[in-house]
Amino acid sequence: MDLKHATCVRLIEELLQYQLIQESGVGVSSGGRKPKLYSINPRKAYLIGIELSNLYTTVLLMDLELNILEERKLKMGEVFIPEIVFEFIIQSIQQLLASNELQRNQLVGVGIGILTRIDDSTGRIKKREYSAFKEWSDIDIQGQLAEKLGLPVVVHSATNLAALVEYRKNYWNEEENLLFVANDLIIRSASMINGHMLYKNSEMTESFGHMTVDLQGEKCFCGMYGCLDTISSLPAIRTEIIKRVKWVILAH
Questions:
Q1: Fewer C-beta within 10 Å: the chain N or C terminus?
Q2: Nearest 5°: phi and psi at 237?
Q3: Alpha helix segments (H runs only) across 113-220
Q4: Average pLDDT of 190-196?
């Protein structure tokens, strides 16, 4: 982002005034006066991060440097009713604030990552017959939680958010590009090029797992054969291990 010097100075002064950043030393001189360095004041405000998957709902309390301070988990199983999950989220946030002696006004907002396809314009889950989230497709997650919590709420692809956090915490001051791959029930990926997310469309996160790597391979749930998902996802690995164990038993 190209900003004029006067604009940068004004923004820095404003952030210092609100104590959102702090002086953290001086940099290397390029010929003149050594520049002042600033860093985020991590404990001035806090964030709530939520992951919704078909296995768990996880609620995190984080500081501004995205360090996890405490978490709450709900094993989904048969408990996949939106009202129950919303109530768990609300109670978890109250518990996290109480145990860390924080007030609600110290929270900047809530970010929700969802491990399924979502409508990127509305934040609503797209209906898919084979998805555990198929009953959530008409639920306005962002709107309902924002109303219940009284806080700004953002909903996005959990894979994209995980890549963004990984980049922001570990690589942003060294690298401009990142390929993030997550392997669980299916294989997902997200890419950052020149510090920006390559694909913001949540459907693109699943495309990596549907690359054809074996034309004679097993049929994938997408209808194609030999996708990477049919070979390297956790269910595929589990199936292969069981198959090989059976071979060993039969051989003896």
A1: N
A2: -65, -40
A3: 141-149, 158-170
A4: 86
Left if phi > 0, otherwise alpha if psi is -120 to 50, otherwise beta: which for 67?
A: beta
- For the chain, what's the residue count? 252
Q: Please state, in angstroms and rounded to a whole number, the distance separating the CA atoms of residues 244 and 239.
A: 9
The whole-model pTM stands at 0.78
Chain segment 59-115, per-residue pLDDT in tens: 999 999 889 999 999 988 766 788 888 999 999 999 999 999 999 999 999 999 988
pLDDT at 46: 95
Which of 106, 96, 43 shows the shortest CA–CA distance to 71? 96
Contacts 24+ apart (CB under 8 A), 174-178: none
| pLDDT confidence band for 53 (50 / 70 / 90) | confident
Residue partners of 213: CB distance under 8 A and separation at least 6: 226, 227, 228, 231
∠ CA 109-175-213, rounded to 5°: 95
**AA identity, residue 191:** S
State percent of the chain over pLDDT 90. 27
Q: Decide: residue 144, CB within 10 A, 0-12 exposed, 13-18 middle, 19+ buried.
A: middle
Q: What CA–CA distance (Å, rounded) separates 37 from 24?
A: 5
Joined together, the tokens standing for residue 43 give 């404990």
- Percent helix, strand, coil in the chain (nearest 5)? 35, 25, 35
DSSP code of residue 125: B
- For residues 42 and 62, what is the distance between their CA atoms, to the nearest angstrom? 9
